[in-house]
Model the fold of this input.
Amino acid sequence: MPGKRSLVRSGTTVDQMVRAIADRIVTGYLRPGERLDEGSLAARFDVSRTPVREALGHLSAMGLVERRPNRGAIVAVITQEHLASMFESMAELEAICARFSAARMTGGERRSLEIEHLASARLVQIGAEEDYEYFNTEFHTRLYRGAHNTHVYDLTVMTRSRLAPFRRAQFMLPGRLAKSWQEHDVIVTAIMRGDGMAAGKAARDHVSIVSEASAVFAAVDPVHPEFSQSARR
Done:
C-alpha cells in the first residue's frame, strides 16, 4: 500500500496483519492466484508462523484467501458478481438498521449520533482519511446498535466484516470522503426526525453507492487473473 500504511511492524497483531494483507488483496497489490507463503509473511511482519496461520484463517473466512490442503494458501478470485451480491445483502441489512434506529434509538443515542457526525465534517475538511475510516466504522456500528435487535446486529456485523476491506478501499477514490459524509448526513437527518422510511432508503442508497465505488477493486475475469484488479489500475 502507498506511503503512510506500513506493512512491516515488530509485534504486529493478527488483526493488523489481516487488515494489511486484505488491503493489498483488495487493491491488487496481491493478485488472484498468488501464493501466500507463511514463512515469507512471518519474516515480513516479524512474527512467528502461528499468528500468520491465524491471519490467513480469518482472510479465508472473509473469502479473500483460498486455503488448499497440503498446498498452502493463495489469493482468492473476487468477482464483480460475488461482491455485488454481498453488497446487495449489506444494503438491505443497513436499511433495516437505519429504519429501526429511527424508531428505537433513545434520545441519548440520537444526540451522540448527531454530535459525532457533525464533528466528522472536520476530518473531511482536512482530508484525514484514516481517522475518517475509523469514524465511518463507528458511525455504522451506532446504527446497528440503535436498531435494538440482537439478531439483526449479529447478521449485519458478520456481513460487514467480509466487506470491510472493500469499504475501506472506497476512500482511496478522489472526493469519496466528502460524498460519504453527505450520504451520512441524509441518514442522520432522517433518524433525528424519526422518519424510518427515509432513513432506510438513505442507508440503502448509501451502501449501493459504496458498492459502485468499491466495484473497481473486484476481479473482472476469474479465468484470467492477470486481467483482474491490478491490471485495471
About this structure: Confidence is low (pLDDT under 50) at residues 1-11, 220-233.
